[in-house]
Amino acid sequence: MDLGIAGKTALVTGASAGIGRGIALALAAEGVRLAVTARRRERLESLAQEAGAKMAIIECDFMQEGAAQRIAQAALAALGSVDILVNNAGGSRPFKIDASEAQWEEALTLNFTRQRQLAHALLEQMMARNWGRIVNITGKSEPEGVNGAFAAKAAMHAWAKGLSREVGKHGITVNSIPPGRILSEQIERNYTPEFRAWQSEHEIPVGEYGKPEDIANLVCFLASPRARYITGAVIPVDGGLRRYQF
Question: By the number of CB atoms within 10 A of the CB, which of 28, 133, 199, 239 ranks highest?
């Protein structure tokens, strides 16, 4: 299927490893011109080498004040425009119930505030061209306990739904993808091979953990003109792990 995104421009955050890296590779394979950002420049350089494509590399700490504006400006300077924004940066933040305000602030900034700021920094130029795609990589809606990332991702879903209603008339769609168990450095660090094998057999209907390309395939479709009528949606990619029906 020709997705019709060759020649489009995209910014992918958190692109140095795991899901973000897989998304960048898939978009590059479709002929999208890319700006990629993360803290580890050497990882971004190896990503560009693996993709066999020229990429604008933006080394930036997402947590620094003004990071979203600096990233947006750098991407626009390198690409001329940003048609597609993939908000992928983030990370789990499990807390105890007596977590400090600083812990909560850090979790919300990393998993919601910067993504919102980045999208709004790029909206005006999308609206001027009457075309844009915002895809947020979020998180599940079944928290096992107190986790700052879960609260932030819920905010992402609500913000994205509201934003989609405001910008649809400008040809811009806004969607969210909560991943299930997708193989990555973080997953391998946090879960033993034995647990992953048990969960694959007992809790995931398709019988295995996913791969970054399983997320990337949906991102490419949502970023394309073929997905013009899909917006404000939350679409899990989890092999059937979650039990909620919508």
Answer: 133
**DSSP collapsed to 3 states, the chain:** CCCCCCCCEEEEECCCCHHHHHHHHHHHHCCCEEEEEECCHHHHHHHHHHHCCCEEEEECCCCCCCHHHHHHHHHHHHHCCCCEEEECCCCCCECCCCCCHHHHHHHHHHHHHHHHHHHHHHHHHHHHHCCEEEEEECCCCCCCCCEHHHHHHHHHHHHHHHHHHHHHHHCEEEEEECECCECCHHHHHHCCHHHHHHHHHHCCCCCCCECHHHHHHHHHHHCCHHHCCCCCCECCECCCCCCCCC
| pTM (predicted TM-score) | 0.94
Full strand arrangement of the beta sheet holding 33-38: 55-59, 33-38, 9-13, 84-87, 132-137, 172-177
103-131 average pLDDT score: 96
Tell me how far CA of residue 68 lies from CA of 61, 100, 226, in angstroms.
10, 25, 29
Q: For the segment 43-97, what is each residue's pLDDT rounded down to a tens digit?
A: 999 999 999 989 999 999 988 999 999 999 999 999 999 999 999 998 788 888 8
194 versus 146: which is more confidently predicted?
194
Contact predicate 39/16, CB 8 Å: yes
With a cut of 80, say whether residue 142 has pLDDT above it: no
Please give the backbone phi and psi of residue 234, each rounded to the nearest 5 degrees, phi first. Answer: -115, 115
